[in-house]
């Protein structure tokens, strides 16, 4: 029963993981800029958020999101504001680079604390997405066998989701690394920032106006 539940849940969240979305855009953009440490920080921050959602759901806390309109709306608007700010900043940076100079940009040194900054960005992005909480409230209990310890089984299922997320992120980072020389050209970086910034703004708008 437990093994069957783990495999079934892995199939569901595996399909969810490889579906292009906010996480994919954020990881690809960071890795494409050559910021490998920060990219892995983003990856692990996102998965830390996933583990938090799983733990809160297993403990019954996230049921408040489904039961309380105020709690859901507060988190939804906070998440939308954060995404709009992050996406707008990327678009502004791309515009600033385009108008500042036509000369090639020098390679940027690795930012101090890049991993920690990436981890915070990934974590906040994940935790401010109320749809993650609602997804776990709706889906996770269905895969917990009646005979299994509820909280521990919930954490085990969430760990499967996190591991799949890390494995898929490794593919994305590897893809960006293979195209590193092209992606680090000023024009390519501006295009990446525009695409990612627009996508993130779109996710923010969708979260703000969606139900």
Question: Mind explaining what this structure looks like?
Answer:
The protein is an all-alpha fold and 211 residues long. It contains ten helices and no strands. It has helices at residues 2-18, 22-32, 36-58, 63-67, 69-100, 114-127, 130-139, 150-178, 180-183, 186-209. The longest helix has 32 residues, at 69-100. The two termini are 35 Å apart. Residues 101-112 have low confidence and may be disordered.
Rg: 18 Å
Principal-axis shape? globular
What letter string, H or E per element, gives the SSE order? HHHHHHHHHH
Helix content: over 70%
Strand content: under 5%
- Tell me about the biggest sheet? none
GO molecular function: amino acid transmembrane transporter activity
Pfam family, one: LysE
Keywords: Cell membrane, Membrane, Transmembrane, Transmembrane helix
GO cellular component, one term: plasma membrane
């Amino acid at each position: 029963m437990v093994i069957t539940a783990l495999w079934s849940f892995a199939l569901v969240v595996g399909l969810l993981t490889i579906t292009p979305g906010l996480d994919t855009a954020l990881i690809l953009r960071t890795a494409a800029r050559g910021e490998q440490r920060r990219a892995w920080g983003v990856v692990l921050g996102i998965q830390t958020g996933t583990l938090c959602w799983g733990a809160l759901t297993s403990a019954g806390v996230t049921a408040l999101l489904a039961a309380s309109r105020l709690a859901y709306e507060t988190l939804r608007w906070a998440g939308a504001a954060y995404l709009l700010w992050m996406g707008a900043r990327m678009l502004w940076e791309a515009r600033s680079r385009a108008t500042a100079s036509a000369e090639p940009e020098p390679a940027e040194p690795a930012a101090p604390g890049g991993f920690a900054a990436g981890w915070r960005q990934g974590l906040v992005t994940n935790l401010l997405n109320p749809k993650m909480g609602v997804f776990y409230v709706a889906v996770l209990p269905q895969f917990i066998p009646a005979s299994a310890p509820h909280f521990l089984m919930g954490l085990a299922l969430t760990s499967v989701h996190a591991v799949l997320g890390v494995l898929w992120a490794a593919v994305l980072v590897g893809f960006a690394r293979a195209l590193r020389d092209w992606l680090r050209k000023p024009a390519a970086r501006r295009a990446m920032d525009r695409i990612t910034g627009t996508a993130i703004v779109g996710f923010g708008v969708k979260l703000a106006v969606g139900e």
